[in-house]
Design brief:
Number of strands: 22
Distance between the termini: 43 Å
Radius of gyration: 25 Å
Structural class: alpha/beta
Strand content: 15-25%
Strand order of the largest sheet: 6-9-10-3-11-12
């Protein structure tokens, strides 16, 4: 479903028509014929789950990504936006989740960078720069000073600097990507006051978000994306939070395409009921685990406790910025915890790094397949034996014949479109994912973490992966599945834990065959429902045994 484009004119400073984005080697349309118009002086919230395509759509408008199809109109005229600089010249600016600031420089130096005032045609005019920046600060009632170094500012003030950079360049369209993800409540209210003032002054604001309460608080309209498509635009006053949630999560029925529940539900039968699982052996336990980032008041993980047992798939659901990525980093050994304990069987592994966890039995399919899951500069063969080199060098030298034979077998079984001797970087994204899955599933020993395991895979490849996950579970594996694809979680997980703002919002047995559970989980994911976290029963080793 797409929205019909609205007529061109001064009331609509930006129009996107038929925007489609497809990456080479990936059959999935990240954006699919999206039509979206932005009104002058409005705050439009662009909402959707992780992977819905909202950030990609705005990157296209900002010139970071090029559309595969479609056109962009700015003030009624077709525009070719090939870079952020070109976007700035058209009055379009964007603030990203991760600030692009130089901490050692002052506010003014960061703001005027690229447009520095000079004296005698050569020398940076510090006084003129600070005066110009202070004028913009005063006009917008920001709580910062031009001569302060950025490293001395709070997170909320750093965000003001990013907005200030755009205002200094006279942008009329301001895009903000998940701007409240790292802010405390007072900073959020201050930001929203600023945005409303900018809209009242005639600027158009796009807020990329998934937070329902904030959508209702700040926006004039909400545009909802799901799986690359724009499923609807509503005046915010005419729809409640549950209505927005239903648009974001989707109807109860499975939708066509990769990851459709109908395509794989028959391939992975659920484990036997919850009572049997509770009697199974605990494999991995989190006991009141907290993660805090230095200089940030909001906890990334807040008192998290759970246990995954042998022979079950424990699914973690949530939307961006609510802790799933942090959980993955902790499980993979890349992020130390601040407090609490993690147990593998009866061993405390709270302080183990990634190599140590691997030796203890962790298999891991990360969401970031390029930077974490593979070495693009190495061959497919080298990537496949990445954690098993010792097995193929019994006398101190690599047995290349054995490696080629072993790798060829996995390439065939997982239908990887590539040769063992070619660099992994030459594979498509979907085939790199298949390579990682082949390596990790084959070497599984005890417990395995899957994060977005079918991202970018077609229906047939996804079905194969789900079948392999089911086989692992049936072999007694403790499987942790982290996914923003709710249909995926519902179809193969035995239990489901929902994260919201770094805490466990609810834990559910996934035995409900009706569609009500999807709506319920959606409400917890969006913060519409919360229940108190139960106090876990403790094992003799100290870990929880819920």
């Amino acid at each position: 479903m797409t929205e019909a484009p609205e007529p061109a004119g001064a009331e609509y400073p930006v129009e996107l028509r038929g925007i489609t984005k497809v990456y080479p080697g990936n059959p999935r349309r990240v954006n699919n014929r999206v039509n979206l118009s932005l009104r002058r002086g409005e705050i439009l919230c662009l909402a959707g789950e992780n992977g819905a395509g909202k950030t990609t759509l705005m990157k296209i408008l900002y010139g970071i990504e090029a559309p595969t199809e479609g056109e962009i109109f700015v003030r009624g005229k077709i525009a070719k936006i090939v870079s952020p600089l070109a976007a700035n010249r058209l009055g379009i600016g964007m603030v990203f989740q991760h600030f692009m600031l130089f901490p050692e420089l002052t506010v003014a130096q960061n703001v005027v960078m690229g447009l520095e005032p000079v004296r005698f045609g050569i020398f940076y005019d510090k006084a003129k720069a600070e005066a110009a920046v202070n004028a913009v600060i005063e006009a917008n009632h920001f709580s910062i000073e031009a001569d302060k170094p950025v490293h001395s500012l709070t997170v909320g003030q750093m965000q003001q600097v990013e907005i200030l950079k755009l205002l200094y360049r006279n942008v009329e369209i301001v895009i903000l990507d998940e701007p409240t993800a790292v802010l405390i409540e007072q900073e959020i209210l201050s930001l929203f006051k600023t945005l409303k003032a900018l809209a009242d002054a005639g600027k158009s604001i796009v807020l990329i978000t998934h937070k329902l309460q904030e959508i209702k608080l700040i926006s004039d309209r909400v545009a909802v994306m799901r799986r690359g498509e724009l499923v609807g635009i509503r005046d915010t006053g005419e729809i409640d939070e549950y209505g927005i949630s239903r648009m974001m999560i989707g109807s109860g029925s499975a939708e066509p395409g990769a990851g459709s529940a109908e395509n794989f539900r028959s391939r992975v039968e659920k484990a036997e009921g919850a009572p049997a699982l509770r009697m199974a052996e605990p494999v991995l336990s989190f006991d009141r685990v907290t993660v805090k980032r230095r200089g940030q008041k909001r906890l990334l993980l807040d008192n998290i406790s759970f246990t995954v047992r042998a022979g079950e798939i424990l699914g973690f659901a949530g939307v961006g910025g609510n802790g799933l990525g942090v959980l993955e980093a902790v499980l993979g050994g890349f992020l130390p915890i601040t407090s609490g304990n993690i147990y593998h069987r009866e061993q405390d592994i709270s302080r183990f790094d990634a190599p140590h966890l691997r030796r203890e039995g962790l298999a891991y399919v990360p969401a970031d397949r390029l930077r974490v899951g593979s070495d693009p500069a190495a061959t497919v063969n080298e990537n496949i034996i990445l954690n098993r080199r010792g097995e193929f060098s019994p006398h101190g030298f690599l047995d290349t014949r054995a490696i080629r034979s072993f790798s060829a077998d996995l390439i065939r079984r997982y239908d990887i479109a590539g040769e063992g001797g070619q660099n992994a970087a030459t594979l498509s994204g979907g085939n790199i994912q298949k390579m990682i899955l082949a390596r990790e599933i084959d070497q599984f020993r005890d417990y395995i973490v899957f994060s977005e395991p079918t991202w970018g895979l077609d229906i047939a490849a996804s079905a194969y992966v789900y079948g392999e996950i089911g086989k692992l579970r049936d072999r007694g594996a403790a499987v942790i599945l982290i996914s923003t694809n709710l249909d995926e979680i519902l179809s193969i997980a035995d239990r489901i834990i929902v994260f919201y703002r770094g805490t466990i919002a609810v834990e559910l047995d996934n035995s409900d065959t009706t569609q009500d559970i999807k709506k319920e989980i959606g409400a917890y994911m969006m913060g519409l429902k919360r229940i108190p976290e139960p106090v876990p029963e403790m094992s003799p080793a100290g870990g929880p045994i819920k």
